[in-house]
Amino acid sequence: MHDLVIRNGMLVDGTGAPPRRADVAVDAGLVTQVGEVAAKGRREIDAAGLIVTPGWVDIHTHYDGQATWDAYLSPSCWHGVTTVVMGNCGVGFAPARPDRHDWLIGLMESVEDIPGAALAEGIKWDWETFPEYMDSLERKPRVLDIATQAPHGAIRAYVMGERGARNEPATPEDIVEMAKITREAVEAGALGFSTSRTQLHRAKDGEAMPGTFAGADEMIGIGEALGQAGHGVFEMASDMAIPEDEFAWMTAFAAKTGLPVTYGLLQSPGAPDKWRDMLALTDKARAEGANITAQIACRPTGMVLGWQSTVHPFVRKSAYRAIAHLPFAERLVHLKDPAVREAILSEDAPPPPGIGAILTHGFKTMFRLERNGQLDYEPRAEDSIAAEAERAGCKPDEIVYDMLMENDGRGYIYLPLLNYAQFNFDHIAEMMHHPATVLSLSDGGAHCGVICDASFPTYMLTHWVRDRARGERLSLEKVVSMQTRDTAKLYGLNDRGVVAPGMKADLNVIDFEALSIRAPEMVFDLPADGRRLVQRADGYRATVVSGVVTFENGEATGDLPGKLIRGPQASPVAMAAE
Asked: In angstroms, how far is CA 404 from the centroid of its own chain?
């Protein structure tokens, strides 16, 4: 008798092969049989009319703090994710000197918009070194598997103190020490090292992220520590256009060590075709033997603007600031007052410089998030607030105000900030077909007050496979492999991502036709009543981690089979073949 048998499902196995009818048997946490399973299971799931897939492997999350207190790591767990990789973009909480806790919290709050009060209350700091952080993570039960990376910002501040925080050049001695800590982290089980090279990432005092301007000597010195350890991904957050001299050392490092280098790639509104240049550089590097991969997103980096969000178009208006400190219920009473509405709308507040102008006055790139009862992440230019206002003969901010007041003050405006320069997803489809890209950038656990992209895995199926009306759709088998086998492979997690005998039994059973993403909602369930935007999903009949059913029909079963992943994982299928 098997531990678990999933019967009669349409299996999409993660390899890219077409769907096929198959049963799946599971024993001791592993898939043991795929095909027609005769023996009974102690637990059986009837998947007739449903699809069966591997569990999603999300390689770009920021649960570094949340993982220390939360067993579930929602919202990712609600979307069929069974493995997350955190420690991205050079931010994290280890190593951590006792007198730098507040600084590390402030850096995470500023860069990733995770409430500092929640981090301060939730994190118990029973570690200083990175290996001690790993041990702390391993002691906690959890619903899914987690893996992490060694973050440049924390390492630089640990070694260099204020010099590191202020981005002063590292001395040769500093580099040696940072390399030593990185190697210790990787040998303790970190899947790699991460850094940020984007000036969008800044600390609370306005200083760029530690490591943003680090020289090639520092980057290569730390990278060589990965080579000495024999494994590890070198992950970089970028400004969507990496200078060629920087790409040169990335290529040299990757070619010399054989280790993967990966960077974030989005379409810039200021240079909408620059991403093609980046992929051309990536192709050239790969031809020279460098394992370089671009991490891409399945939709824009889209901000959700509401009265409870971190930002909305009225945050600079003095009439709004006069009530901004009030609890939301009290603030809403004022916002419903016609006199307050008139005071806010009539006030002339000039746009702030830079990105702030888009957030407060970018009406040509603001849209209604829900349209005809559906979430619309690929709106047309003529659907913009500016276009709607022109047709209605009114000011755009009047429409914004009224939209925000919908659903009893819980209406939302969608602002696709990056990856949407041409008002469609055609360039994203082109990226997805490129052999040097991997699906990523969900930022699960981060940007709590303005972005909710942990729903990416579900969106890939609903929009890209089933619902897209404005261009090419993707096949179900391609989309499944993109967020299972392909993401797992980049980080050396070769024991998962494919449904085959010997592989880890991380699975989803999905009602594909009923699959949907709910509208974002602001909840206050973090420590210290911290806020975050979340989205739930409907249509996941079951999620399985290591052979244990963790969710049924969207509800947690209470079982917590998740583990801390330490280092790359060998493929049992390949080992058996040898």
From this structure: 26
